[in-house]
Write a structure and sequence with these properties.
The structure is a homodimer.
Chain A: E1 23-25, H1 36-46, H2 60-70, E2 77-80, H3 82-94, E3 100-105, H4 110-117, E4 121-126, H5 134-144, E5 148-152, H6 164-173, E6 177-181, E7 202-207, E8 220-223, H7 226-235, H8 243-254, H9 260-279, E9 283-284, E10 291-295, H10 298-306, E11 309-315, E12 318-322, H11 326-341
Parallel strand pairs in A: 1-11, 3-4, 3-5, 5-6, 6-7
Antiparallel strand pairs in A: 2-8, 7-8, 9-10, 10-12, 11-12
Chain lengths: 342, 342
């Protein structure tokens, strides 16, 4: 990569293998397609699309649909290619060389990547045994005076969660912007989205990729006070969200209630999987998301792989297992049970 | 926007009005939907999509289809959310604070935006009467030693073009990277894409948004030597191109020949529109693209607007008119003719 700038010399192109066969529990995807009604409505809309026209760059219909759901104004919402694009926009807008970004660690790995891409300095706040330590977070904010504070709730990959009171404590400690990444919040039984409207310094990020079963359309959104939304929109690439994604997301959002059955099923499967993994003697962490963080010997990972069951490895003996369908979870448990007995 | 960094304080969120009624000749869109066969094949594929899975982040099938068309290897191709995303990746990868970027001017306005977003310095090379001046470009390269040289062929918004010999002269003068933006090349009767494979320092950018009639899916691609493709892939956000866009683009690319009729029609309409505008006494520039650059009094713009005909204004008395369908062009000519007579 002879033309890349010096500070990026260490970067490597990231590839991931495309798995099309087996049980895929490594990407926190829902095991279910969206409800049929949504797909059918979408197919009817496809007939009417003028493919030869650019998408609506302001995603008006989708913003309006989301604003209605959260009872905010249309100008409190903006749409991106996954919430990733919007997070990236905030990093680009706010972080100058050497500015600090504070996040609990481990958390979503892209926070560090986004920080480094804009020359910021990433500070991770590690808790004992992978738990959130709010006091340490508050000390770190006081010591580092960060421009951005990242909080992923429930946390990816640990599944950890915070009370609303703790979230507010953090927000009220910092003069920087707090980014609430709520990608998995629908699995928690709570919703912190609208906290963002109560403060100047909070942006909530949500996505269609998890509980809404639509990672294929790459669509996320941010909710905040209008000047923060304006800031994102002044950095965001025009026309980044495709016409079909806007339409599909709008239909899904309008039918949000139809997802309840799927979400409840995933939550109850999560609890069942948790108990089974616990009974098998693995170290398991309580989770409010659609995945479970597990400490287990690497040999079990290899055995799962041999059985075409794909889970996510973080480091030695440290894994994240996405909650699959009942049948998929049964197979996973069965394979681990057999492995334990041998 | 209280949290935005100082260097971005002047930025404003960019909005564009959504026009749904009238004759839209302001965005260089094709007046035609893609050929029916393509839409029908796509609809069959929708039935099989697992919407609950992330897209293939390496866009393997689409890269392979494109590589086949241009007779290059799969690792000479990468896909983006429009060629814009890929251009942006190169700017982010290459430009450090104060680095120079040289481009003919006027050209695609995003080059300057991308430069400023990463703290680079943009140098425009202006020719007399909106024409390319290759000698001045070469002097500017020698004087400025730019990290990036942008060449848009045919040029947006002027429609200007360069011989292959001139393109090579520029490439061989600079030690920086040359970005050949070929968004409109299919309307020129030439193809410079594969020049990128002959040099270390050239990347060609193409898009499905223009001749392929698919701006709605936001899909572009870059072709270059593998290390330049690796560089883009190491910056590019993972999973940015949706599953549906990958599928639609792959089908369209496989059926590239079906577009010939549409493209030929647009080219012949361009020539007819050019002659008509010339005969009406406007100053018109020869174009190799699907638009025409025109100097005309602002009052004609107002009259067109009153008739719901939308063209693109650049500055006082300076416009770009996209070539529409035969009927749309007829209406435009008729309105201008009437206006001239009054």
């Amino acid at each position: 990569m002879k033309y890349i700038k010096n500070s990026f010399k260490g970067l490597k192109p990231y590839h991931s293998s495309l798995i099309t066969d087996g049980i895929i529990l490594n990407a926190n995807e829902s095991p279910y397609n969206p409800p049929k009604v949504i797909i059918e409505e979408f197919k009817k809309e496809v007939e009417k699309i003028e493919f030869n026209r650019y998408p609506d760059m302001d995603e008006r219909e989708l913003c309006h649909s989301i604003a209605k759901r959260f009872n905010v104004n249309d100008n409190n919402v903006t749409i991106g290619v996954g919430s990733d694009e919007l997070l990236d926009c905030v990093f680009r807008a706010v972080i100058d060389n050497g500015d600090k970004v504070v996040s609990f660690s481990p958390s979503f790995s892209m926070y560090k990547v986004f920080t480094e891409l804009v020359g910021g300095e990433f500070v991770g706040v590690y808790g004992d045994d992978f738990k959130f330590n709010v006091d340490d977070m508050i000390s770190s904010i006081k010591n580092n005076n960060p421009k951005l504070v990242l909080i992923c709730l429930p946390n990816n990959p640990t599944g950890g969660f915070l009370s609303e009171k703790d979230v507010r404590r953090i927000i009220e400690t910092t003069s920087g912007l707090v980014l609430l990444d709520l990608a998995y919040i629908d699995f928690s039984g709570y919703d912190y989205t609208n906290i963002a409207l109560e403060y100047d310094n909070v942006i909530s990020f949500r996505t269609f990729s998890k509980a809404m079963s639509l990672p294929s359309i790459r669509c996320g959104y941010a909710i905040s006070r209008d000047f923060n939304i304006d800031m994102i929109n002044s950095i965001k690439a025009p026309y980044s969200v495709t016409t079909m994604s806007q339409i599909m997301a709008r239909i899904a959002n309008d039918h949000f209630n139809l997802y309840k059955v799927q979400i409840d099923l995933i939550i109850s499967e999560r609890e069942r999987l948790y108990n089974n993994l616990l009974n098998l003697g693995f170290k398991v962490y309580p989770s409010k998301a659609n995945f479970i963080f597990v400490i287990m010997n690497d040999k079990y990972f290899d055995i799962l792989l041999e059985n075409k069951i794909y889970i996510r490895k973080f480091k030695e003996n440290t894994y994240r297992i996405t909650v699959g369908s009942q049948k998929e979870n049964d197979t996973l448990i069965e394979v681990l049970k057999c492995a334990k007995q041998n």
